[in-house]
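If you are new to this repository, start here. Below is one unmodified record pulled from the training split, so you can see the exact layout before writing a loader.
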Amino acid sequence: MNLTCFIIDDEPLAIEVIESHISKIDGIDVAATFQNAVKAFQALRDNSVDVLFLDIQMPRLTGLEFLRSLKNPPKVIFTTAYREYALEGFELDVVDYLLKPISFERFLKAVNKVFDSAPPHSAVPFPPVEFHKEKRFVFVPSDKKNVKICLDEMLFIESKRDFILIKTQQKEVNTYQTITYMEERLPGDEFVRVHRSFIVNLKKIESWNQNEIEVSGETIPIGRTYKREALKKLEEHTKVL
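And here is the target side for that same chain:
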């Protein structure tokens, strides 16, 4: 069963952005959208939802006032252009506080917090990516399917704007996981994060220097933030004669 949500924002464009983000995530559906909190309050009396995406600065009733008026509110994620309400928002025990404009990666992180705290019977946004040494493969969600990726065939992972690209020797797979999520689940002795946008399979490196790596004919930069750890792993994994 999917989780359901209300989007409450007086800006139609902001509602469209959130709807677009949600459309890319399995396990959560938009039940309704509202451009003022009063109508949303009335709807909540007759309907229950799992999550509210709630703007703060709205006419007639602000998001903060609206949330305080609810006796048993669902999970709440604030979506606002005003960072000064963050402390007050978290004092109301909200799941997250998103500042506009909201990137998909940041939005996904907030939604995953909801799924992490959801009851066991609730749906999860993505099947967990788990590595098992005896199996040597993972399944990742892509285009409404779970796609098998053999770790020994994986070349690199690249973070795009709203998704990540997993490139293997045979295919390319797009998935709406985050690159950090993948980094945490891949074996650290076989894969290395070399850039905020790239994870590389150490076994597939064809050449490297202090600034870049070549994998399957493609040049991948080594980012300044990741250089120290990346070069350490490269030196440990490769023997230079």
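Two things worth knowing about this chain: The domain at 3-117 is CATH 3.40.50.2300 (Rossmann fold). The radius of gyration is 21 Å.
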